[in-house]
Amino acid sequence: MLRVVFISGISGSGKSVALRTLEDAGYNCVDNLPVRFLHDFIATAHDDGLQRVGVSIDARSSGDIARLPAIITSLRALGTEIRVVFLDADTGTLVQRYSESRRRHPLSQKLFNAGVSPSLETCIAAERDLLGPLRELGNVIDTTGLTPGQLRAWVRNVIQADSVPLILTFESFAFKEGVPLDADLMFDVRCLPNPHYDPVLRPLTGRDAAVAGFLEAIPSVGRMIDDIAGFVRTWLPQYMQDTRSYMTVAIGCTGGRHRSVYVVERLAAMFADQGQVLVRHRAQKHFDLYEPEHHGGPQPHGN
């Protein structure tokens, strides 16, 4: 069966990195394919016996973007396995990336021709409106604060996930770094006791046995995890009935290092029987060098 991965998202959010990740994974990739050629391209890929195809479609194809959700639905009805990865980042991060690259936003000329002052912030806002329908179709990855290595790892996790009705992602984050844009559900665990104040536990993370033991011994931590799990189990079927195939549950604490990481790991284990479960730790880049009891990056659960 032909597997197609669409890469879309806001300009400056890392689509080039994501597309190169697909190429490295053996996908035949096309960047900026006009939407009107999509059916012919997929048909040709079928005829040529290709098994994995990556397509980047974004604001540069603005005239046809509105047709893309219906086209994806029709392709799926014909038996094509399609996965959509939508990349985003907060506006401040996008502005900084554009200032560093000195590139022009793809919508700037269109807005200028329409008599609108094409400031970078205005272009980004217009692009968010334009691509809103695509965002609802895919697995959203907020690339704010991510290193290219993290983004590559997260994209690989998504494309390597099994073909199941739902991909459920548990993601830890630090409130001091801002709220992630890719969260469908978000829970705050800052009310739990903080291992940061123990000098022995401070350099560790929620994936280390010492931190896990500290938190497991506190009854309120277990109650919090059970309450979050109960909420997700209760409402997950309703989200799935809404034809949703991706769900991201974000767990936040102050530094994104101890409590949220531990809770995410526990929840991922509890939901290992719910289709494909992925784990993301947004603060990973800050603690990789200080993990004596854990080796390797975040791994999919439930395989």
Structural account:
With 303 residues, the chain is an alpha/beta fold. 41% of the residues lie in helices and 18% in strands. The protein has eleven helices and nine strands. It has helices at 15-24, 38-47, 68-77, 91-101, 108-113, 120-135, 148-160, 209-216, 219-241, 259-270, 284-287, and strands spanning 3-9, 28-31, 52-56, 81-88, 139-142, 167-174, 185-188, 246-253, 276-281. The strands form two sheets. Strands 2-3-1-4-5 form a five-stranded parallel beta sheet, with helices on both faces. Strands 7-8-6-9 form a four-stranded parallel beta sheet, sandwiched between helices. α2 (38-47) links the parallel β2 (28-31) and β3 (52-56). α1 crosses α7 (148-160) and α9 (219-241) packs across α10. Mean pLDDT is 89; it is low at 291-303.
Kindly summarize this structure in a few lines:
The chain has 303 residues and is α/β, with parallel strands linked by helices. The chain is 41% helix and 18% strand.
